[in-house]
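Troubleshooting entry. Yesterday's outputs looked truncated, so today I'm pasting the complete records for two proteins to confirm everything comes through intact. If either block looks cut off, that's the bug. Protein one:
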Amino acid sequence: MSTERKYGAQSMYGTLKKALIHRPGPEFSDHDNYRKFGFTGPFPVLEEAQHEHDVFASYLKEWGVEVEYAEDCPLEFTGLTYITDNGIITDKGAIISRPGKPQRIGEEAVVAKKLLSMDIPIRYSVSAPGTVEGGGETIWLDHDTLLIGNTYRTNDAAYEQLKKVLEPEIKVIPFQLPSYLGPGTVLHLGSVCSLLDKDLAVVYSKLMPIAMYRLLEERGIEMIDITDEEFAHSASNILAVAPRKLIMLDGNPRVKEELEKRGCEVKVMPGNWTGYDRHAGPTCMTMSVLREYE
């Protein structure tokens, strides 16, 4: 496909040319909103969270990614830093989410407005009763195959809508995930797998749907299984800026070593506030707008 495209990111590992991100602002550490959002830990130190995000953004820029920022975030949207959940960018435009966490409803409108300002058309917006959390809940297995989780955040109604919009051009395959720690703790499909190249992934097999594990095996994808300890440090949340050029959270030495053994170039970022505390990582903080394809 021509690199003349201005948008389209139907890949998890094709070279990332353009990304939309949101630097944490006052909404990220607002005390009332933080508790309403469901967090019980210490209140974030905004300056430290911003530093973590700035390190992340600097890595994107070092690797040649054009970075756009979503700004003017209303105070109630503490989750906007995890911008990927608000939509996915197909070759025909953006599909806008309808978040499954009630406190996040409205974030998607902020993102949609920004995308329109970037001349990216809105292909479809998921409507009630559908709920889906965009890039966090979906994985592009290849350009024409989209995997989607069925979780507390993403339901059958959203799957049926996406299937109607995308098929037969794009095959949409659903996978049921376990309850894990219940509806109050996020578990997306992207929480248990990051695809890093056409034949390499990091997974947390304990929570991974068996059918999905078998599908990756059938595709000849090598899976590096992470430990319980590193899952708690968001080691399964790794952004591929290009095949085997990766950004991940610090504090996961085992999986980092395994990746480097396989020829990966790995940059690590701090995640005390933007990562571990939020069960998140660099994939959550990136809406891929434009990627190259093979």
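Protein two, checking that the full record survives here as well:
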Amino acid sequence: MNFSLSLKQHYDDLTDSEREVVSYLYNHMSEVKKMGIIEVAEKTLVSKSTVLRLSQKLGYSGFSEMKKYLTNLDVQQTVNQRNSNLVESLRIEEKNFFEYLENITFDMLTKVFFRSKNIYLYATGSTQAAYLQIFYSQLILLNLPAKLIFGQTSLEATLESIDDSDLLIVVPYGGETEHIKEPMRVISASGATVISVTSFGQNFLVKHAKYSLFYEGIPLSNYNVSMIQLGQLLDFLIRKLQVK
């Protein structure tokens, strides 16, 4: 998996020593390409097993595979520095995201959709809600029992009927939206299957969901973020459901 995306997804699970190794790797990419695991361990004053454990926490089979993806990142950053062309930047962002999609086991997710009595859909922001509305329409066309939940009051009302035969898909941005925390605790206790769809990283919602999907919110300015990857993720999921 792309090193940057893997790091965003797992950084919160790293120890202080592992984070120091990551900092060294990031700041010395060109040198690390020529180094072995023992040399990295010596440079960062940790054990060889700490470097290996870091590699595995980030989703790699070992140090060699992690170094391979770190080298790819170094090449990409070099390209970015030489070429600020918008099209090239978009191409790199898309390549990274589709590498992530290739590593998702969608078969498990599609089985949940087809065995659920109700499929509840809930978003916390207007952009997320717009993408989820399209996703809802596509689920209906597949004759799946989708139900949109609008607003906090409707989410809380759903608690009265949701059970272990239901599926809830929650689409906030960072996964720490305060008003969803208490309902999520109740829903988790009900046995319902929860799929979180958030930006990369560990958060409250990820910890309370059975399955987690991620996307990158790409900054457009100081006040605006593109969530095109959210749309692509939901579209990809629909395509998987269509061929089930």
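Both blocks look complete. Sanity check on protein two: The chain has 13 helices and seven strands.
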